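Please predict the structure of the following assembly.
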Amino acid sequence: MEEIRLDRLSLGELEREIEKYQRKYGMSFDEFMKSYDDDEAKPDTALDQIVWETLEEAKAARIRSGRIDVKVSEERPVVVFTPKRVEILRALSKKSPATVRELAKLTGRPEKAVYNDVRLLQAHGFVKLEGGRGRKTVSLLVREVLIRI
Amino acid sequence: MRLAARIQRVDEPYESGRISGVIVWSDSSMTKYRVIYSERVKDEWIRFDHKSGEPSHAHLRTRTPLRSFEAMKRDLEFLVSKLQELRIYFRR
């Protein structure tokens, strides 16, 4: 028997579980549902549908709650909340989504440095970075950061 | 506090087919499940769906030249009883 513990997955891990289904079917969940025929779906597809739907619901609930768990390795601690990164999060709390260029302007820093910080914040699940070259937008995924020791 | 949500998948051979299913839990409550009895050789299946707050319903594959009505009914009854067994099993 296989089990997925949704409450133990970080937002990034949830997204990676969802990506498995996106890759398998070559489309987003919304697109999949447009072509999904509930009466004719083969058993495997019907089971994938309910798991995929549950993962999407869990992801949406996680984002709505604004709570994202960050696992910091004791062996290789990562300093996530430098003053400059917190400034980026604060800027995003006022305007989200924002482009990297806008964030650079708001924080008075070079775009490249802001981009690198945004990527690190994305790796920990605090923000989402989207868009192609030239116009990358950043969305805030958390409302509150609680550090439990 | 976040709910202890989990997804369980089951897949067991049964007679000439398989029972496969997904059960979604939130703490100790089963919030939804989808259980299917399929006979792949015949390309036939029966599915039983449930979501909390909604009526449970069964799906029969419509285009399959299925067995007789009585046989289908027996399968459904079997499926419901099997599901009840699964529920008892998972609550342990």
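The interface with chain B takes residues 1-7, 38-40, 42-43, 46-47, 50-51, 54-55, 58, 65, 67 of chain A (CB under 8 Å). The longest strand of chain A covers residues 2-5.
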